[in-house]
Description:
Layout: E1 2-7, H1 16-30, E2 35-40, H2 61-70, E3 74-78, H3 79-84, E4 97-99, H4 101-110, E5 113-116
Parallel strand pairs: 1-2, 1-5, 2-3, 3-4
Helix pairs in contact: 1-2
Amino acid sequence: MNILILINDAPYGTEKAYNGFRLAMSLQKEHPAVQVNIFLMADAVTCALPNQSTPQGYYNIERMMKSVLSKGGKVKACGTCADARGTRNLPCIEGAEISNMSELAQWTVEADKTFTF
């Protein structure tokens, strides 16, 4: 099975990104044969920026993303959204990539289920 998770919100401030990554991690833990693909759009492209520092006991999107990537998940960020926020030329968390709508379209037609956060 192939699962696509679209995240549209900033990594902190609301819990949309947090919940999207929680779902991804749970899917990987409980259903290891499932392919999890995460596409970051709008302010969510900032989820892919490294060196996130959060208070003790607070969730950390970078750690969550690294967990998803280490288990074979894929994370891509919308290049147009990154351009609009001035982040395209900043480094991404290792394993995350800048992408485009064509690739999102391909992931969408390949997905058995799609979730949006």
